[in-house]
Amino acid sequence: MRVYRQLLLLAFTSSVIFTGSASEIVQSKGHFEDKFRQLEESLPTANGYRNAAGEPGKDYWQQQVDYKINVTLDETKRRIEGEQVITYHNNSPYKLKYLWLQLEQNRFKSDSIAERSSTFNGVDGSVSAANTYGDNAFAKISLQDLRRQQFLADNSLGYQITAVTDANKKPLKYTIVGAQMRIDLPKPLPHNQSTKLNINYSYNILEEDAVGARSGYEHFPDDEREGGNDIFLLAQWFPRVASYSDYEAWHNKEFLGSGEFTLEFGNYDVSMTVPSDHIVTATGVLQNSKNVLSATQLKRLEKAKTAEKPVFIVSADEALANESSTAKGTKTWHFKADNVRDFAWASSRKFIWDAQGYQQKDSQNPHVMAMSFYPKEGGELWQRYSTASVIHTLKVYSRFTFDYPYPAAISVNGPVGGMEYPMISFNGPRTIWHDDESRTYTLSEKQFLIGVVIHEVGHNYFPMIVNSDERQWTWMDEGLNSFLDGIATREWDPDLPWGREPSDVTEYMKSNVQVPIMTQSDSVLQLGPNAYIKPAVALNILREVILGRELFDFAFQEYSHRWMNKRPTPSDFFRTMEEASGVDLDWFFRGWFYTTDHVDISLDRIYKLRLDTNNPDIDFERRRQDYQAKPMPYSVERNQQSGQKTWVDLNSDNLDYHDQHDQFSVTNKERNKYNKKHAELDPWEQQVLARALKEDKNYYVFNFANLGGLVMPILLELTFENGNTESLVLPAEIWRRSPSQVSKLIVTDKDNILVSAVIDRRGETADVDIENNYYPRQIIPSRIEAFKEEERKGNKYRDIMHDNKEALKEPEIKAKKK
């Protein structure tokens, strides 16, 4: 009987306690989508290699590949000839019958999958889109694209493998499959055993400006030297053993261009023979500096270790003198690098070289040499900002991850706009040469240099140390690195336009040319927005909005330490971030990384409700006041203004009961009913109701709609009649039972009368439509592309350093006509 009475009371109070109308959410049968479905259903099952917390498991293993390479750069022929000894350590629990190697130079052969699968649609490369005018349809092809075709046709490209032998120089059977090579072993390689093999090879170096690659040479025909000079940036320059992992076995997916590189850690011993007047820089530490550097250069290098600003090892004047060098013969530069996943180098007589030591607290690696190599074309821009940007990157990234473990961090200027390798990166921005023999740089080039150096040097952390699979998941290195370079650029200068804020991804997220972030690299439609900006913005939101900095930074650093010098997968990242933060993030990672949903939360309506007293003498009087406050109809108002009398006015002595009582008059029957029901309430219920009536608070029901499909917290800002504001965060879990529409009751004190509300006023959640964020609706300033375009042109094309050197002329005064 007690339970039944409570149900009656609940029915009574819920039916009369509020006045007003709030829309009711109705969930159609069969249309429910669980946005909070656990991600574990989609992730690989945890095992001994990778546990459920996102850590390397007790049985985790990874392979090691060591290289000893002797390579010769033929500057005249622009050709590489090398021989290498590979030592392969099988740390896996399996026997291996063969090894797979990557031959990335074969990607540029005419019969490669990459070349044969390229399309002509105005998106790929430099090919212009087709244009149609009426019945006359034609397509445009750029001169740059013709240049590429001609270079590929005129040059024999790809590896020439001249020998593959075992440790005893006996030939090994090998099969080349496009840009890969399988080497069959004489007998299976057991667990914990190693094998050696030798490969002799050569290839013609690409002209990077002609082909558009990640490495190659750049020719300077107008240099002082007869015939000009070249800068050589050498990467993907030797046959490299493919990765073999617990989750995929051999990673033998061919290089198509977008998916970068998946490699094993190992030790490198590399000797590069180059023209004697070249300066060489590379991954690792120079072993024979006394043989290749002058006494003066050695002294400068020693001084740079403790210098407070960059020291020139090769000055601009010395580099300019080298450009007209007629020296003959060769020098061999010997570098070693331990526990790195790749090796790259650069060589030119044009290089200016500056260096500065960076001191960190790491006891194992307290000293790092930050260095820059650039031609005179880099000029003051590089002198001021390259090495400084390198050191800034190390400071910021190490704070969020781990101390930098390598002895050097290098920035090299050349034809590659931006590309990264262990300890060394290639970066493109330069100065502008003028007829007055001066060099200047635009604001855009300055911003680009700082940003690209931070980004490419930052790649040492992801994926050079935290060794994710770039060929499969671009976002795991580009997205995480873009997130951190956004932090680093903001700490350099908040005005640097580097595209990591939520507003930078809204246009992409509502477009129809999307694929989920969790898409294989070569299948992504727009690599920049998908693999760089969107995951970076997602992590920015995760840090600033969802978790807060303390929880996020702890979890992110935990991931970095767990997978330092190891090979993580997306599931390891997702699990670590959730396990270390202590927050369920499955809804976040599923929505942002596995779907193309976008954020569009609409504040549809706000209803102001008032608590009824249930006392008819009070409630009916309130209703009378509300009725009387309604606007008077025009017809009634104008009748009164004209002095027209009503029948009731003219017959006041002949009014009945209803003329003397209105619809809000209270009857004794209603009073008795109220008294009876009030008496039936328990004492605590009477107390609760009495307090609520006394406080007379404002009850507001907010109706929200999720139009974009991506559930997010609702960042709500309320503005009151007295001018005060209040911020509320409704967690994403508010959508867990009804992902399309929800209502929220918000109660304010009697004096806090709400006048307006807005969702995400600061643009922190990447909401694609801000017009429906306001209630009442507001006029939204137009955001048109013309403004952005003008801003871009202003940064990129205004060379104010040079233009301001022009003398100010007195304005001409024209004589007045008589």
From TrEMBL:
The keyword Signal applies. One of its GO terms (molecular function) is aminopeptidase activity. Residues 795-818 are annotated as: Disordered. InterPro entries: Peptidase_M1_aminopeptidases, Peptidase_M1_dom, Peptidase_M4/M1_CTD_sf. Residues 1-22 form the signal peptide. Keywords: Aminopeptidase, Hydrolase, Protease, Signal. Residues 393-592 form the Peptidase M1 membrane alanine aminopeptidase domain. This is Aminopeptidase.
